[in-house]
UniProtKB/TrEMBL annotation:
Protein purpose: Participates in both transcription termination and antitermination.
Basic and acidic residues: bias regions: 359-370
Keywords of the record: Cytoplasm, Elongation factor, Protein biosynthesis, RNA-binding, Transcription, Transcription antitermination, Transcription regulation, Transcription termination
Organism: Ligilactobacillus ruminis
InterPro entries named among the record's database cross-references: KH_dom, KH_dom-like_a/b, KH_NusA_2nd, KH_sf_prok-type, NA-bd_OB-fold, NusA_N_sf, TF_NusA, TF_NusA_bacterial
GO molecular function: DNA-binding transcription factor activity; RNA binding; translation elongation factor activity
Gene assigned in the entry: nusA
Biological processes annotated in GO: DNA-templated transcription termination; transcription antitermination
Protein name from the UniProt record: Transcription termination/antitermination protein NusA
UniProt biased composition (Acidic residues): 371-401
Organism taxonomic ancestry: Bacteria, Bacillati, Bacillota, Bacilli, Lactobacillales
Amino acid sequence: MSKELLNALDALETEKGIKKEVIIDALEQALVSAYKKNYGQAQNVKVTFDAKRGDIKVFAVKEVVNEVLDSCLEVSLSDALEINRAYEIGDTIDFEVTPRDFGRIAAQTAKQVIMQRVREEERQMIYNQYSRYENEIMTGEVERRDSRYVYVNLGNVEAVLSKRDQVPGEVYNSHDRIKVYVYKVVDPNENQNAEQNEEEGKKKRRNRGPQVYVSRSHPDLLKRMFENEVPEIFDGTVEIKSIAREAGDRAKIAVYSDQEGIDPIGTCVGPRGERVKAIVEELNGEKMDIVEWSEDPSEYIKAALKPAEILEVRFDREDDHACTVVVPDTQLSLAIGKRGQNARLAAHLTGYKIDIKSESNMEELDRQSEEEPEENFELPETEDVETEDVISIEDIEADNE
């Protein structure tokens, strides 16, 4: 068994890159537990493995004392001096206690330890490999799907694509090659610790190993695609300030450049729209609105609501991140967008709560405000203006729900 074990350790180090010292250390610890289980004592026992000859020996470690109270743990000074005249009180002496049949136990334990270590090292190697790709794009092949996930083969690991990370309307068939965004890689050791009180869940985690989560709907997928297609974004000449995305349908991207002579929008669109076209094709026709970011909130909001024409942006005095946008009567539907999408994306892009009102309705509200008596300059709290031309983000989202 000794020769076979040494050969196995050498093969593991060569083929799997698992150092012999790591397995030997784990093996010695496991053999102590095996000795305790089979022979009823191990509090003062240690097991050594000879890495050159492959011999396994068990030693009882005893402390040198004047008076022996427990012969399993202690040895008298007089007996110790018979072994070696250099021993003193407090020293420890190893006495070999290797059982005759310990080789069989050692062989079984060695097999279990090696298999466990191989699995752990392989999982850790996979984690180390794919953790480097966290927050990056990878290309994988769809393997299968079930009620919860689409499973994507990334090479050495099977990543999971949950329903919320899928793009509505996209169909994922076996052997399809797709680009995915790796947004989380979970360490297998963290998996075990997180579920240490749930035995069944813990076993599943151990069998599964490191878990890689990928997405097709994440806004940062779009950001990485633009970095790949637009060199000026990759090198920092043009910066993506914000992204608002409704995956599979439409997205708005705010870009900026502080260098004179650089058109950030034109740079992202590319000659004849080739750069943005490549991204649109990869995302199966998802529409892209590229707008220029501005330090001026009013200008930024106007840009975010394009292609609608904006007449005025009024900011709420009581809420720093709320405003009312006034548009021509003919532009109201365009500003709001189909099912409120344009207004909703603009709000997410800018971080402002946006109310959109038509020009005629705004004039009516201003007139009513001017007609109020000076002593009653505040509108009654219970009074609401009802008109089909006044639409807010909250109304839109409530209708959608």
